[in-house]
Design brief:
Length: about 290
Amino acid sequence: MNKNYNILVLDDNPVIVKSIIHRISNLNDSYSYQFNFTINSHYYDINLANYNHKSLSNFIKAKNITHLALDRGFFELSINDDLVLTKKNGAIKKIDELLRPIDFTRLKQVKRAIVYTYDEPDKASEWYVESSALQNEMADCLGGRFQKSDIDVIRSNSEIYQYSGVNLYEKEGEPYDNEYNILGLIPDFKLYGLFLGELIYHRVLLTIIQSRKQQAVKKKKSRVLNVVLLYIMLTSIAIGANSIYDLFESTKVKPFLIYVAVVLGLILPVFIIIAKPDILLSIDDE
C-alpha cells in the first residue's frame, strides 16, 4: 500500500514557500516511483495580525501532517514589483512563540521537524544561534514527545551562503516608502526556496528510509516471538483438549486434569491472544 507523508511548510515569505513546495513536488514526481510512499507538501499562511493557533492545530490534524518545515523568524511582509518588503516597526515572532500554545501530544502523526534559518553569524546578534541550542529550544516548544534527535537544523547562512560570498539580504533595510523597507529581491528568494526544498526533501526522505529500516527489524523480531508464542498456544490447547478428553473418559473426578484443561486449554491461549493479538491479526503501526 502506498503511504503518504505530508510536510507542512511554515514561513512568513510566500515567495520562499512557493519555491520550497515547487521543488519538493518535482522531486517527489522524480523519485516516488522508487518507493512505496509519496512525500507531499502543504502551506499554512501565518498572518501575525490574526494568528490563531487552534486553526493551525486543526490544519495539521486535517492534513495528517507528519513533518514540519519551519522558518525560525516571522515578520510582517508585503510583495511589490520584484521586491519583498518588511513593515517598519512591524510585529516580529519566533517560530517557538507561535507553536508553543499547540498541544503536540494530541498530534501524534507529527514525527519530525526541520527548522531552517538564514542565521546571523555574529555571536553578538539576537539572531545568532547554535544548532544544538535551536534543537533544544524546539524540542521544548513541541512538547515532551520530541527529542533533540527528532529535530534537524539548517543554518543556511553560516553553513552555506557565507562561504559562497552571497548575501541574500544585501538590500535589507533600504527604505521603500513611509511604511515599508526592502527585505530582498524576489528572484533571490525564489532560488533560496528551491535550495531549501532540495535540502528538506532529502532530509525527510532519509529519515523515512531510516525509520522504515528500524521498523522492519522490529517486525522481524516480533514475527519470531509470534511464532514461539503461537507454538506455545497451540501446544497448550492440544494438552488442554487431551485433558478434557481424559476427563470424559475417566469415571473419577481428577482435579489435576481439570486444572490442566482450564489453564492450558483456555486461560493461557486467551491470555496470549489478548497480549499479542498480532499472532492472529497482522497489525501495521506505521
